[in-house]
Specification:
- By secondary structure, this protein is α/β, with parallel strands linked by helices.
- The chain has two domains: about 180 residues, Aminopeptidase; about 70 residues, Alpha-Beta Plaits (2-Layer Sandwich).
- About 40% of the residues lie in helices and about 25% in strands.
- It has eight helices and twelve strands.
- The strands form three sheets. It has a six-stranded mixed beta sheet, sandwiched between helices. A four-stranded antiparallel beta sheet has the order 10-11-9-12.
- A hairpin with a 2-residue loop joins strand 10 and strand 11.
- Helix 1 packs across helix 6.
């Protein structure tokens, strides 16, 4: 099974992210995203990028890109910052909730970066972040050191290639473990159309009713699906809810 991963370079365009002594987070993020994505591609992973140049999209738009990609995971790359320079250091990875395969991937990435010399600040729940809350696939946000810490910046620059490999290896390690465990992700499909307009109409209706619906393109058809679940019981509950609202559904896995 070939996995697909969305790599998101945080910020971009008129949004510099954090800045320190003329250094902009958006640039570090993009350089790292392209390097990590290239390594994943060389290892047979299908990679989607939210950006490959210095452009800006809102966090919500990035989440939509992730949902529409049909990918298996969403990984957002950032640098951290605090109000007072050189007072905090290390890596941390943010997740919506500390559970499932996304938390496993977060810990693998943190451990690999720690081995390069970064302090490991752990896996942190941040359910308020749009790119974690609005994505319907396992998602995480990696804070690769503090941009306003001189030691973290020196490590980031001196070991850039090793850092890119550490993040990619953390992702690949998790994908391999997931495949060995024959883990499946379940979704509830509500409709499939050759005409995208029809699919968009159903998508808008579901979203307006509060369902976590998204659109994926598979086998030349636009498929409207709801939720991504590691536990089939949760998919069954969502299917029951949708059928109660009058939708014709079935559960699909990948």
């Amino acid at each position: 099974m070939a996995y697909s991963v969305v790599i998101d370079a945080g910020h971009g365009g008129n949004d510099n992210g954090a800045s320190y002594q003329g250094r902009n987070e958006k640039d570090d993020n993009l350089n790292l995203a392209l390097a990590v994505g290239n390594i994943l591609e060389q290892n047979g992973v299908n990679v989607y990028y939210t950006r490959t140049t210095d452009v800006y999209d809102t966090p919500f738009e990035k989440a939509v890109m992730g949902n529409n990609s049909g990918a298996d995971f969403f990984v957002s790359l950032h640098r951290n910052s605090v109000p007072e320079d050189n007072t905090s250091s290390g890596v941390e990875t943010l997740v919506f909730d500390d559970s499932g395969v996304k938390a496993e991937m977060a810990r693998n990435i943190n451990a690999n970066l720690q081995a390069l010399g970064f302090g490991n600040r752990g896996v942190i729940e941040r359910p308020n972040l749009v790119v974690l809350r609005r994505t319907r696939i396992p998602s995480l946000l990696v804070e690769t050191g503090f941009i306003n810490n001189d030691s973290d910046n020196a490590l980031f620059d001196e070991k850039f290639d090793e850092i890119a490999n550490a993040i990619a290896d953390g992702i690949l390690e998790t994908l391999n473990q997931n495949q060995e465990n024959d883990s499946k992700l379940y979704r509830v499909q509500v409709g499939a159309y050759f005409n995208r307009n029809y699919a968009n109409q159903l998508l808008s209706r579901l979203q307006s009713e509060g369902f976590p619906a998204f659109l994926t393109l598979e086998d030349g058809m636009y498929k409207v699906q709801v939720g991504t679940y590691e536990d089939i019981d949760n998919a069954v509950k969502m299917e029951s809810r949708l059928r109660g609202e009058g939708y014709n559904t079935f559960i699909t896995s990948r």
